[in-house]
Structures are given as structure tokens and as C-alpha cells.
Design a protein that fits this description.
The chain is mainly beta. It has one domain (about 1-255): monomeric porin ompg (Porin), CATH 2.40.160. It contains one helix and 13 strands, in the order αβββββββββββββ. The protein has one helix at about 1-15, and strands at about 35-50, 55-65, 70-85, 85-90, 90-100, 105-115, 120-140, 140-155, 170-185, 190-200, 200-215, 220-235, 245-255. A hairpin with a 2-residue loop joins strand 7 and strand 8 (about 140-155). The termini are close together.
Length: about 260
């Protein structure tokens, strides 16, 4: 158990990944994790277009702790990216979340996150949120659900003095998501998740994330994954594109 936590910490500090300042946690959640401790370790290859065009090798670690009343999830990602075999871009993220069991069909939760992303000029980002999730339909075929939370967000950007966008912002956002998880066969899982995060007081300032993920089991513990991500920021910092896309292929080990 201590070795797993240490691994997550090392991943966050030494080999950060490129998540563009936001994380789609729903795409990383595991179906019905068992009671006690469990988790996943994975690696992937990323081809990204938008603000930077590069190839990335990444690592990912997730740790679950499940009790009858609460599910705790910790996420860390890491990676190295190269542009034309010379230039380097990086980011890092650590996410902590607790979801409480409340029947029928409503689960309160809270979360906190720290991250940075050099490709987005993001020197530091901290957020904390609280809300609830629900499941409209669930069965052997998969699950269709949604969630909403009030989210506090603080960002520090690496911008020149002449930039129009503020180098420091502190705001509240309304974070909402819809998620669909389909299990066509015992070895294939398809997940699609969409986030919309408008700023309170300024609906025109909105961030949108979309993630589509395929995971196919090779063995009981090993899976191959392919995922496509899209991120849109209606008010991006100076010199940063409003739209980013990411294609990731990888391998995940579950324990």
C-alpha cells in the first residue's frame, strides 16, 4: 500500500503529463471497484495538435479505497514530450476525490486538484469543488449518468507584461458533465464524457471537455486503450489556441 502511494507521488513530481489544465475524471473512473484498495497503472503514446504538435510517452496511476459509505480516488499522471526531437513541453497533475453513497441514485462528492501545463502557459492551478452525481440508467449494458458541482478555481499564468489576459485569476465555475459507459462484450468498454464549465457571472467564459475512450481486455489484469480528447476554452490566454485535441493509445494494468 505504501509503495503504491509513493509511486503516485513520484509520477506527479517527476514525469508530468499533458492535460491542458483540466482533467476528465469520469473517463478515468473504474466500474464498481472492489471493497478495499485497488488501482491501475498504465502507459500511453500521445499525438497532440493545437498549441503544440508533439509525440508524448506517458504514465498514469490511479488508487481506489472503497468502503460501504465512501469511495476515495487518487489520480496522478506523468509523461515526457518532444517536438522535433529537441523541444520539451510538460505538465503535471494530482487529483483527489471522495464520493459518498446516498440512496436512491444520488451521491454527494468533493474533490481537489493541483496541476500545471507549460504548453498552456499555466504555471499553477488549484481547484476545489463539491456537488453530486446521479445515474439515470444502469445495468449489465453499462451506465448513463450526470453530475454537477460548484468549483473554486485559482490560476497563475506565465504571460508577458503586455498580455491582455490577466496573469492571475480566481473565480467560481459551475462544472457539469454527462457520461455514457457501454459494455458491448466482456472484453470491451466504451466511455464518452462531456464537461461544460461556465464561469459564474460570465456565461460567455466557458470551458468544454469531451473524451471518448475504448478499452479492450487482453487478460484479466491487462487492457489496451485508445482515447480521443477535445478541450475548448472560450477565453484562452494570449497566444494560446482555443481548441486542443489529443489522441492517446496505451496499456493499462489493473490490480
Amino acid at each position: 500500500m505504501r509503495s503504491t502511494i509513493l509511486l503516485i507521488s513520484l509520477l506527479t513530481l517527476s514525469t508530468p503529463t499533458f492535460l491542458a489544465g483540466q482533467i476528465n475524471v469520469e473517463a478515468l473512473r473504474r466500474d464498481d471497484p472492489p471493497m478495499g484498495y485497488s488501482g491501475t497503472l498504465g502507459g500511453d503514446l500521445t499525438v497532440r495538435t493545437g498549441n503544440v504538435d508533439f509525440v508524448q510517452l506517458g504514465l498514469e496511476a490511479r488508487l481506489y479505497r472503497v468502503t460501504p459509505s465512501v469511495t476515495t480516488l487518487m489520480v496522478a499522471d506523468g509523461g515526457l514530450g518532444f517536438l522535433r526531437s529537441s523541444r520539451f513541453a510538460s505538465s503535471g497533475l494530482a487529483h483527489y476525490r471522495q464520493t459518498f453513497v446516498y440512496r436512491p441514485y444520488l451521491s454527494p462528492e468533493w474533490y481537489a486538484q493541483l496541476n500545471y501545463d507549460r504548453s498552456q502557459q499555466l504555471a499553477f492551478r488549484a481547484l476545489a469543488g463539491a456537488g453530486a452525481r446521479t445515474s439515470f440508467a444502469r445495468g449489465g449494458w453499462g451506465e448513463f449518468g450526470a453530475g454537477s458541482a460548484l468549483m473554486f478555481e485559482h490560476e497563475r499564468l506565465s504571460l508577458p507584461d503586455t498580455a491582455v489576459h490577466s496573469a492571475r485569476t480566481t473565480t467560481m465555475r459551475w462544472s457539469n458533465f454527462l457520461t455514457l459507459r457501454v459494455v458491448p462484450t466482456e472484453t470491451l468498454v466504451i466511455t464518452s464524457t462531456t464537461y461544460a464549465q461556465p464561469e459564474f457571472g460570465d456565461p460567455g467564459d466557458i470551458r468544454v471537455l469531451e473524451s471518448f475512450r475504448l478499452a479492450t481486455s487482453v487478460t484479466e489484469a491487462l487492457s489496451l486503450t485508445v482515447s480521443f480528447g477535445l478541450r475548448y476554452d472560450s477565453v484562452p490566454p494570449d497566444g494560446i489556441a482555443a481548441l486542443d485535441t489529443t489522441l492517446r493509445t496505451g496499456v493499462t494494468y489493473s490490480y
